[in-house]
Amino acid sequence: MNKEVRLLLKARNTAFRSDDAMAYSVSRANLRRGIIKAKHCYKLKVEEHFSNSDPRRMWQGIQAISDYKPRNSTPITTDVSFLNELNHFYARFDRDNRETQTTTRPPADNQPLSLTSTDVHAALSRINARKAAGPDGTPGRVLRACAEQLTGVFTDIFNLSLAQAAVPACFKATSIVPVPKHSSPTGLNDYRPVALTPIIMKCFERLVLAHLKNCLPPTLDPFQFAYRSNRSTEDAVSTALHSVLTHLDNNNTYARMLFVDFSSAFNSVIPSKLNTKLGDLGFNSSLRHWIMDFLTNRPQYVRSGHTCSTTITLNTGVPQGCVLSPFLYSLFTHDCRPVHGSNTIIKFADDTVVIGLISNNDDTTYREEVQHLAAWCADNNLLLNTSKTKEIIVDFRRERGSTHNPIHINGMAVERVSSFKFLGTHITEDLSWSTNTSSLVKKAHQRLFFLRTLKRHHLSSAVLMNFYRCVIESILTSSVSVWYGNCSVADRKALQRVVKTAQRITRCPLPAIEDVQRTRCLRRAHGILKDSSHPAHRLFTLLPSGRRFRSLRTRTSRLRNSFFPRAVSLLNSTPRTLNSVSLSLSLSLSAPC
User: Fold this and answer.
1) With a threshold of 0.70, does the pTM exceed it?
2) What is d(CA 286, CA 113) in angstroms, rounded to the nearest whole number?
3) Which of 25, 69, 403, 505 has the most CB atoms around its CB within 10 Å?
4) In what order do the strands lie in the sheet with 343-348?
5) Could you tell me if 209 and 250 lie in one domain?
6) pLDDT averages per 10-residue partition of the chain, 593 residues
7) Among 428, 447, 471, which residue terminates a domain?
């Protein structure tokens, strides 16, 4: 009820008490028209939440319609001693760093990175105004609104910082807000640290990150799929499964997949070791010294409400909440590679899987690989969490020579499981996809409730379609190119039933999951064709005619229906001119660093 409706309601009540039949009839008609107008305005206001691609506004609209009220979480105590204890707990890895921190400056003849005012202005203009302010208290909306006036100032500050290889202490400060992992936390580990850093430093990091990505050497591990262009979790999972399925096409073979878990991997990185590895990758000393200064002498405190702990200075780890941290971690682990050709290590940031391709029951090289990984982690100050590390054994042989002995890491046996969720996809020991499909269907059914709610409030078909594509279809087709080809008929029907239900609600035609999967496969295949550095690029080879691709050799339907053989088949069945194929296979030369 808005202000106009209240006034009309008051006028109707006044006319009713005046015993004037004509005035009462007019006021009642005005009230009816006012209510209709108010409902229409409210509908437009709600639809405005769904008119763009802003998930935050969309869920705000859902909450307004459904009258959703979030549960009040347990408030964090404001006791300073408890906050100090939390701060020391979050900084516990810094105590294990025995290396002394030395401050060095790059030689005078080394050319530092120089940023232009255009780049700085673009970074300031793209600031998300809704992001929480960091320890400096400067809100993002101020930086964005004053981008024109602040560009020159921050361009000079950024370039001076890069030239001197020194980051201002106020830029490196981190404020940690502890958030309970569940409703009744009992220990320090039950509080998840949410790190807030200055927004202006994040802009600075994005500019440096863009330069670092352009300077990546061709020798970088191709099986690190995180934070690289034309790479995704689908690529990582597809590559891992293709390696396993190709090996299982041979006789007397099986595969073991070790899903490695690290304890606080980002917080364990030693900056001096990272600096050495960046030098091995060919980054210039000026940029390496700047990164070294960025990672050392970092002030950190824990805040709860208006109460703050004492400040601790850290010299270990790549701080979570920073833009550069995930990318620097991926560079830190670039030398974690297999020592045996029969093994593969697939990485997506700190998500790592070791794949052992075993023939004739000889898993010696696989066990040596695991021990080598454990030794590498010890040398690089990374702690393997054996209790959370899991192993899947994929063995389809009818006659197995012997039982599979467990893998031991640091004297502790690794648990063997029948299913593991890797990068959002459930992988099972029989490589079936019922577990993964059931999980996706369950999530999609939960989202259908919101679609029905929008329908009950008479939102337009365009809004319903947009909500379905963004919220429901995105769940059903998560990594669809990886698993859909080997889905059972029952799983495909379960997926399609969700689509049909949504179609009845929206009363609009919706694309079938199979059509979406076909489109995604072709899109990914074309992306791989254009990227010669992609580890799967070698799987797409043209025949001498130049018009078709060589089909991958397969013996089993499991391999034949997997992504890469399926992608080659789709490319061959898609009409395409020779010029377009040549264009897809052209090599894109990266600019020298």
Assistant:
1) yes
2) 8
3) 505
4) 343-348, 351-359, 253-260, 390-394, 415-416
5) no
6) 86 87 89 88 75 70 71 67 89 68 56 88 90 88 92 94 91 89 82 88 93 84 87 94 94 94 88 91 90 92 89 87 88 91 92 94 92 93 91 87 83 93 94 95 93 85 87 93 94 96 93 94 92 91 88 92 94 64 43 38
7) 428
